Amino acid sequence: MKEQDSGKLIAIVEDDPDVARIIEQVLADFGFRTLWCRSGGDLLRRLRNLSPALCIIDLGLPDMDGIEAMQRVRAQTACGIMILTGRAHVSDRVMGLELGADDYVLKPFEPRELVARVRSILRRRESASEQTPSQIAHFGGWRFNLANNTLGAPDGNEQVLSTAEAELLKVFVSHPNRILQREKLMGSRDVGPSDRAIDVRVSRLRRKLEPDAESPSFIKTVYGAGYLFLAAVEWHEGDAGNGH
Asked: For position 137, what pLDDT does the model report?
């Protein structure tokens, strides 16, 4: 086990006590602290006083849909989010990833695989936070603040990217004008040939960055090879507090 994982708090939002107990036990075996919430409302109340590193959210909650719970968590905290569900529909998975989930695990699950996915999310997030945190990337009239995941548009409007979107854009601005394979864009997570998570994230980022997402000017698809971020990127430091 990696030492930096030890003691990190993982919130488990699951109304089935047996499933929650399995998750708590396996995470404890790997040194994590856990917080069990039976409902979305229970989690949102706890988040007022606690800052978990990751929330594992079941889609079938008693008080609200897990997608709604995830959106409310995302609006309240910058923690990682893993969806855990028995719903096998592709539409549920795509919707979860589009709305900012870092990963999606189906029930029944292998406990050790769940831990591996948890550690992969935390590893990616730590790597992203360590990458030139004081720098701001400027390209095509846009500015991307790596310290707080803020994306500023040419017209001055700003929006905060989700963790997954920010991680992806960090890779793009750090490697402009180069074809990047999907495996590179997913970071340390293993990517299978049928894994479409990266394509979902690219699509989501395009909708925020491109005037015409159907005919992108920045993020180009290179069929059979990967993606290309077509832009001249300039780096600036120390203007994190400025509006431009």
From this structure: 92
